[in-house]
Amino acid sequence: MDRGEVSSWFGKYLDAFAACCRGEQDTSALLAYYGVPWLVTTDAGFFALTSEAAVVGMLQQQVDQLLAAGYQRTEVLDSDVTVFNAASALYLTTLSRQRADGTEISRLTGSYLVTKGALGLRISVLVVHGLG
């Protein structure tokens, strides 16, 4: 695993996420990017999602909120990749979720632990630093 591979893959993930949030594809398509189990920590708490249904359920909440807000795209404001070893890397980023006119719906700063296994790259852990 290298920095370029992780950055490129994350860009494809953001494209898939955007398609879901615009209603162009089903949220379950994001399972191609998320590991099961998936660990999430936010100000609201810690969540260990141990089934595909639980992962899709958590993602569906985000998708529904963004679809209702008129979401169009996500802009990467800042990012950095730290490769730990051949099987894992940390993708630290600040993302701006935007409407078609460029107005910001929300901003997310998070650390994504990306792991490489038999199914390829997957987000295994998400740590949300800030959401606004």
Give your account of this protein's structure.
The chain has 132 residues and is of the alpha+beta class. It has a single domain (3-131), classed as Nuclear Transport Factor 2, Chain: A, CATH 3.10.450. Helix content is 27%, strand content 51%. It has helices at 3-21, 52-68; strands spanning 34-42, 45-49, 71-85, 88-99, 104-117, 120-131. β3 and β4 form a beta hairpin. It is globular.
The overall pLDDT average reads: 96
Q: How many strands appear in the DSSP assignment?
A: 6
- Element order, helices and strands? HEEHEEEE
Termini separation: 31 Å
Question: Biggest sheet, strands in spatial order?
Answer: 2-1-6-5-4-3
Please state the structural category.
alpha+beta
Seen as an oligomer or otherwise, the chain set is single chain
Helices and strands in order:
Layout: H1 3-21, E1 34-42, E2 45-49, H2 52-68, E3 71-85, E4 88-99, E5 104-117, E6 120-131
Parallel strand pairs: 1-6
Antiparallel strand pairs: 1-2, 3-4, 4-5, 5-6
List keywords for this structure.
132 residues, alpha+beta, Nuclear Transport Factor 2, Chain: A, 6-stranded mixed beta sheet, 2 helices, globular
